[in-house]
Sequence to fold (295 residues):
Amino acid sequence: MTTQIDQFILYIATERGLSAAYQLSVRQSLDALVRWLEKQNISSWNDIGTQELTAFLTTQKDSGLSASSLRISMVHLKIFFRHLVVKKEIPADPAEPLLPPRGDQHLPETLNEKFITDLLESVDVTKPLGRRDLAILEMFYASGLRLSELCQARLENLDLDEHFIRVTGKGGEIRLVPVGGRACEAVQDYLDNERSLLVKKKTSSWIFLSIRGGALSPERVREIVKQRAKAGGIEQTIYPHLLRHSFATHLLQNGADLRVIQDMLGHADIATTQIYTHVDQKGLKAVHQKFHPRG
Fold:
């Protein structure tokens, strides 16, 4: 059994390009499973069913593992057993029916659509760097980019005519992400009227530039988002990932398919994206309680 784990870790390291930290996390989850299986006198992956995996996760929960850690462990089990099926080492995937844990689940914070509109409309593009900062905010909300993906975005990967941008996500995974109309307009305005003013002799093709002509650092982008919200009279602390969460939640609320949202966010496993279904359900409950006569 350890041989298959070693082979899987090698696979996610070499073919998926996942980080050493992620490899370690996966191995810890799978090693914990093997130790539990040994206590059950199970020595083959073929002898494991959904019932056994459920019992293992229940044992982990009873030992004090948090819901968030339990969710991570479940994701690791899902990608591992799916890999075994693809390699035809087991006939069926026992992890496929597993459901995300309930309970002390942390739901991502989101902003409502009016709040987002107020934030975007508060940016004064007539002031220095206004066009750049508006383009950044629009891109976060329109495309759900990670902070690192926006900082690394290059001109050659942007197609405003087709409304797409190519980004490199976690593990070196490349994906095409749609860019909304308003975001395209804001980025085009920045490119036409402001970016050229920031270009220096050694400037590369980064889309978003600092005043020194280099790529913006993640720390600087966090500051920009926070400062623009404060300048717009918004008291709540705004950060890039909050705009990403809002992007996904608003897509789901307006009828987008969860698999499509998964692709746009660049999530390796649908279980990660499913957190937004809980956010949406929470919103539905609030609406029901407010407007139903017996809510």
Notes: The mean pLDDT is 87. The first helix runs from residue 2 to 14.
